[in-house]
Amino acid sequence: VQLQASGGGLVQPGGSLRLSCAASGTIFSIGAMGWHRQAPGNQRELVARMTRGGSTNYADSVKGRFTISRDNAKNTVYLQMNSLQPEDTAAYYCNADVRTSMYSNWRNFWGQGTLVTVSS
Hints:
The chain contains no helices and eleven strands. By secondary structure, it is an all-beta fold. Strands 2, 4, 5, 6, 9, 10 and 11 form a seven-stranded mixed β-sheet that branches. Helices cover 0% and strands 55% of the residues.
C-alpha cells in the first residue's frame, strides 16, 4: 500500500493550500485517514483525522481554519488549509488504516511528507 501526498508549497500568511493524499495498492478496506505534521525540532503531531463514516477530530490549533475531507471511492483524503500562519510551517504527512484483505488486520500506513511553508 502506498500513500502519495501532494499539494504542499510556499504561501503567504493568510493564504490557503489544499493537500491531497491518495492510497493505492492492495486495498480491501480503508478505515480512518488523517494528517499529521512535523516542524523542525518538534515532534510529529496530529492535525486532523476522519473516520470512514465521516467523524472528524482536529488539533485545537487548526480548528476553524483547516477542514479534512475524503473521497472513499478514490481512496483519497484532503486537507483544506485556510488562514495559514507561519506556525503552520511543517512537513505534512498523511496516514491511513488499511486492511489488505478480508482476512487481514488493520495496519497503519504513512505517506511521504509534503512541505508547507508559510512566509512573506
